[in-house]
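Long-time lurker. I teach an intro course on protein structure, and each term I like to show students one example going from raw sequence to a predicted 3D structure in token notation. This year I'd like something fresh instead of my usual example. Would anyone be willing to generate the tokens for the chain below so I can use it in lecture? Attribution to the forum is fine with me.
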Amino acid sequence: MMIKICIFLQFITGLLPMQLSSFEQFQNSMRSFNASSIGKSAGGLDIPHVTVSNNGPSKPRVGFICNIAGNRLSSVNVCTSFIDAALIHRDPQLVPLLSNYNVHIIPNLNIDGSQQAFTNINKGTTNANGIDLTSAFPDLRENVQVDAGNVPPEVKSVLDFLEKEQFQTVIVIGASETGITFPLFHVEDDHEGIIDDAIHREIAKKAYSLNPNLAISGCSIGAGQGVTNSRSATFKRRIDSTGTLEDYTYLKYGALTFHFCVSCSLNSDTDVFEENVEVLKELISSSDRGLRGRVVAPDGAGLRGAAVAANDHVVFSQDGGYFWSPLVSGTYNLKISFGSYPEVLVPTLAVEERTQLPETVMGDIDPVPTQHENFLQMNRTLHSIHEEYPAITDLYSIGKSVDGRDLLVIVIGKYPTKHVPGIPDFKYIGNMHGNEVVGRSLLISFSKLLCKNYNTDPRITRILSTTRIHIMPSMNPDGFEAAVPVRDSYNTNGRANAHGEDLNRNFPDQFHDGEEKKREPETEAVMKWMSAHHFILSANLHGGSLVANYPFDDTVSGLQNHVYSQCPDDTFFQHVSRIYSDNHPTMHAGVACNLDGTVQFPGGITNGNKWYPVTGGMQDYNYVFHDCFEITLELGCAKYPDGKFLPDFWSDNRVSLLEYADAVHHSLTGFVKSSEGELISGAQIHVKENSKSVKSGADGDYWRLLVPGVHEIWAEKGPLRSKTVEVTVSDKYQVVYNFTLYSEQSSWNETEHYVFEPPEVFEPPAVEIPVRVREKIVIVSDTDRSEGVKVTFIKHGALDETTSVGEAITCYINGEEVVQSEGNTVAVQVKGLSTVEFQGASFYRATKFLDGSEKSVNVRLFPLPSSLGYHSHEEMLAKFQSVLKECPQMSWVYDIGTTHEKRAMQVLRMSAGDSTTGAENGSKQRIKLVGGIHGNEAVGRECLINLAQYFCSSYGHDDLVTRLLDTLDIHFLPSVNPDGFAVAEHDNWTKGRGNGQDYDLNRNFPDRIAPRKDPLQPETSAIMKWSKDKMFTTSISLHGGSLVACYPYDNSESQARVYAGSPDDNTFVYMASTYARAHPTMYKGERICDDDRFVGGISNGAHWYPLNGGMQDWNYLQCNTMEITVEMGCNKYPTEHELLQKYYDHYLPLIAHIKNSRQGFWGTVTDSAGSAIEDIDVVISAPEVGVNISARHSGEFWRVAAPGKYEVTFTAAGYKSHVHHVEVGHVSWADLPQPIKVVLFMDGEDIKNHEDSLSRESRMEMLMRRYVVVTVLAVVLVAAVVMGLLWRRKKNRELERRSKDIEYKGLIADDSDSE
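-- Reply from a regular --
Happy to contribute to a lecture. Here you go:
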């Protein structure tokens, strides 16, 4: 019993701060903390170190170093009390904070001095050797080289400790005055401050303010202000010195560094720790102020030591690739670099108090060439590549040179050893002229690039999975060995082969090959090689100029300089040449080698003969005789530059080499077969108005390279021919069409209009078929868009006041009139349904099908308004208030900011079943619908206002709307730019586009590639803060001026009109397609606005036109929000009559988009005790496309994903990762996908033992419960003992009284006897 009482008393008294009265008591406390040692002092004592919290590499590191001066015992008391409160008593003030940081404390650095100070406070200012440690550290400002033999052991121990830990924040605790100081402590003039002066000062001021007693102590530093660095003359005069620990940690590691003086007294007898605990907490939490992120290799491994430069501030990533960059709020140009990886640039990044940067993947492994390799070296390199990557490479020789050197070719691809039907063969040839050596080196490095990044880099993996690439670094190895390194474009040594023949004049020529030339061994080898392989696209790498050169190289009439010799595929050759040129940093400028800067080759490309004629050239031979489209690339003015310039050539050409190889897929492809299904080789593929035909290969497969657009094509062989096909070719993907050849001429005359749906684009569910009756009722059916079955609408009564019974009604499917019928019956052809009657209700189910099968099909009717008008800003806000009044239980309005002209940016939030106070339900997905970022594009604004009103009035009546509001948290922002709308005019395409300062808000967001040109606008800032706060799952931005649904990315490195897909490309295509298909005409992609034509009604942003600073890319990269941009029509600000039609057209697509927010998977992540785990990484990997994207949520997560199979990895710091396989299907109108429930176990935890898997908070809670139980038991037992003692005392008294009574009675008896 007494033992339990002692435990209870120890628990109660232990909550008091630890006050040290002797050195022995300090040593005993260190033993109770299980302190380790970082080294020995000069006096031979252990320098203690305590790890207060260790939460893994994803959390910032904070180091406390106390009592450098030796006699600052108040600092020792503070640090010891901190450890005691955190580790022994689990102080609730500290435990939640410490779970987010790794905190280490050296409570008594100058332990020798403190041993003396505990006896005499005026002693102990040095170590046992008499050295003042406060100025004994290396002075990096003066570049003083410290003699290792003279470094005090305490200093050496701390230096090693700092190097090992590399803290984000170092807090030096001292005493004898009060305040917080920061570097530099030694400067060269009174006004010099550090780069990070502002962030240090901001943090120090806030922390200092949390203990008001510091300011009134009478000994505050910095002229009584309490916060300073040595720029303050008052402070500088007192401690300006070299060799301070504070300057060292800041200059060496870039750590936030503070010197916190906690008390005027050297050894205070007050509770200094309790007075300053809030200050200490603020300094700890400053460790992740500014920017934080992670840098990883392509395989996902964290990279330690990556340099992260935000303007002039540089920090380095630590274990796991995590970094923290202390920055004040503002805009920064970010550059991340590591080793030979290409730098990652994030221009104009907006940094707030705590900004999380998405995980930075350091591109691909970049094998930069550094020297020219002779034949033997090249031979060894190619063999070593093949030996290291045998699964994806093949190495062979196509023949011998004159001097007997092998003409080596390395093949790289998923199927390297043979042609696989359906996979094109591509080739690069270098060093045809032996003295033009740059291409040779680049192709060796290009081979390494492909191999090293296969299965890690998504782009390269896709290219190698769909292409077989043949690379011949040197066609003329004899010439290379004879070449002389001279930086002269006209140097000819080694140009020819060993026979002195120019190999690029030695091929058969279409115009001038009457007399058969003697073919050189190298030429014959290449000709046989081309006959053995069905090459589709090729490039020949030369030097001496800077241009992409395309056929023809000569003319029928002979050697005519500067005459354009056009081949039948001239437009494609220009297109593919521009792909290379546009991705080269200087080639596209066309200056080439002109020293005066004049343009020689517009766009960096040229027709061969237009430049100068070449007879017997290889590129024309490829095209004319083998159907292989080849261009010649001149890579620079110097033919044989010094090897030190090769990295520059590589940097200039690596992207172009990749883009050009990928261009082999800018084609129509497929197979040619007979009507019996047999594959046909040698069939000719014809294009209307093009005299050049190409032939199908041995396996019947063919590729026809074509510029994007509509083409009429057909195939034939002998008497067999196919019908003519009109097909639209894209430069995003191969268009697949299989020809069937017929012998009957009647089959040839048909013309098929063929629309190809690429296999990599997910098909959205066929459930959204808008049908309009008098444009007043919309019917949606769960059936495919097609013809074949009849649906009948029978009208009983008027549809509205303008339609009488019996009046003719016109029905539309996707805007096309289907049938018109007199009377009250209208027939509509819809696949799969037999006659279904509609008699005025809002929902029907049809079960009878023409084929006799029984299947339920839902059909829904939506009423639409008969008129629509524009709302001023004030009217829009009033409309919000009317929604609030009508639907107070499911709608709220809140401000996110104000515009330049001080108009309120208000958001209407709608969600059913939430708290009436407006508190958001954390278990619902948040989505946002945004309109009017360009003020003069007004359709989206009005559609959103009316859609919100419809949701309010339809809740509880329409089951779809009810379901959406029950499961989603929908935020409407109809007008981002009300200032622009206020001045916009009908049919004026520019007025009101910008905001009140005429800045384009959709060019004002931080961009992943280009720096922002204009200052950050208040509207942009408000959107950014709002989006980061809410972390929406999906978003849509409504624009005007065209008719298309666009998706990221909006730009590319080249700033050209090229496809720039994101890692989530498939899902974005799915989202955009769903919108386009629900629209009556968008899905057709017709040219209705200018000359734009979009296949399927969708477009990648950059592929349409590149823009920098767009909102959709920023949302995706910074908030993991899947945003698409919809252009709602050609007229940006139509009349009110036209506006009504726009609403009819976009009503269903908007609902389809909202419904699509639930497409994917969702769930919860908990620990084994059932508690939600915050800061979860949900990493999604779809191996076939290489997607690797992270999203963060608290416990619950949502991930939008197109249908498919995904491998999902859940990770959290301190927990074992968990892999979950998910199959995502199409989400129906009414159903949600089933949630995923994931349980993570802590590192080192026995999964079978759930008790040991409790989180730290749960264990502490359990421990506190046990203490309470013990306390209660102790009190009960003490009470029982006391009661027992009282009862015993009472009994004793009764016994005493009885014995006295007995004794008294006995005496009486004795007296009577005696009488």
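Some talking points for your students: Residues 249 and 979 are 50 Å apart (CA to CA). The first strand starts at residue 36 and ends at 40.
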